[in-house]
Amino acid sequence: MSEVLKLTILTPDREFYEGEVVEVITESIQGDIAILPDHMPLVTTLKPANTEIVQKDGKKLKAFTSTGVLEVINNELKILCDSCEWPDEIDIDRAKAAKERAEKRLVSQKDGVDVKRAEMALARALARINLK
Ligand code: ATP
């Protein structure tokens, strides 16, 4: 039995996090998931979420993680995400503006509005606002 997992979180722009952790809680398309050491192999799709990381030293971190893919194999947990931010990196005004834009698109439902895209933009904005 292992007491830790190696967590790597990558975006196209940067290596967001690498370290030994004891738990990661996030949201997949099937619902909330908690990954602990010795988790069975898993590949799943992530929704925009507030991801909680419990480090080996007991410190808890929270971060916004956007859509992506999560993979667990042999106590290595990899998250490949479109974007990630720590709370102090989030521009709250930008997130509020993104929320308003998405809500207007969803209410108007004019021809040409891509509903799924607007829903995802709203989910990203709400997760960022909730983390701030
Ligand atoms: P926007 O419409 O404001 O661009 P978005 O949800 O479409 O929001 P993303 O596609 O998720 O944006 O991210 C594009 C880039 O902008 C990423 O590098 C992401 O980290 C950054 N970003 C987006 N929104 C914010 C924010 N509110 N605060 C800080 N960085 C942000």
Structure description:
With 132 residues, the protein is α+β, with helices and mostly antiparallel strands. The protein has 2 domains: 81 residues, ATP Synthase, domain 1, CATH 2.60.15.10; 41 residues, ATP synthase delta/epsilon subunit, C-terminal domain (Single alpha-helices involved in coiled-coils or other helix-helix interfaces). The protein has 2 helices and 9 strands. Strands 1, 2, 3, 4, 5, 6, 7, 8 and 9 form a 9-stranded mixed β-sheet that branches. The chain starts with a strand and ends with a helix. The site of adenosine-5'-triphosphate has 12 residues, from α1 and α2. F-type ATPases have 2 components, CF(1) - the catalytic core - and CF(0) - the membrane proton channel. CF(1) has five subunits: alpha(3), beta(3), gamma(1), delta(1), epsilon(1). CF(0) has three main subunits: a, b and c. This is ATP synthase epsilon chain. It is found in: Cell membrane.
